[in-house]
Structures are given as C-alpha cells and as structure tokens.
User: What shape does this take?
Amino acid sequence: MGYDIDEPLPWHSTISRTRQLYPAEVFEMLFNKVFTMCVQKGMVSGHTQAVDSAPVKANASMESIELKKPFQSIEKHFKRVDAENQQQAATTISSASLITAPQHQLSRVKNTRINYVTIQWLRLVQHMRKRS
Assistant: This one.
C-alpha cells in the first residue's frame, strides 16, 4: 500500500473515527478504494478464513459450501448505528451533572486530537493517490 517497513501506520482508531469527522460519501469512497487495492494485491480472495492473520483449517466438505449473504447491507448497518448513537446521545446525562475540566483545557485537547486525526487521514489519502 506504499508504506515503508519503518514508516508508522495510522492507528486503527484513526480510521474508525474518520466516519464521524468526514461525510459518509468520503469515507465510503476511501473504504472501497482500499478494499479494491487489497483485492488487487491478492489480500482478499474469499477462499481462506483467517483469525488474527493466521490461516484456520475448517472441518467441512466442499459439497457443504453455500453462498452466504450478509444479514443487512452496510448502508443499513451504518444508519442503524448512527440512530443508536443519536438515541444514546439524547439520553446521556445532562452536562450540568458532569465533572469536567476548564473549557480552555478541553479546547486544547480537542484541537490536538483533531489535528492528529486529520494528519493521519491526509497521509492515508496521499498514499492511496500515489498508488492509483
């Protein structure tokens, strides 16, 4: 994917949080592009199941193989998760009852996190553009 062996990779949480920071269309485009690159590099083929990057032998015959369809589409899953998150946010304890830090300290932490996530996101996009 264009990373050198000694080059740090983005943290998985960086990519996980990206969906909340950018429009869903941008995240979906990036995900599809990365997935396509993985397929092209032979990292996704559908014939080997892996757990923690280790091949796992299956005790099954080839005759019993059948096509599995996802329970729901990724779009429906995202809508359901977003609705659950919004519902949870609506029922969260009011901010008056929370113990918190002064606003200037919170702003500094928030800006640092946003800058880090943005830098990691941009690095990932740059690497994808180099490879496409």
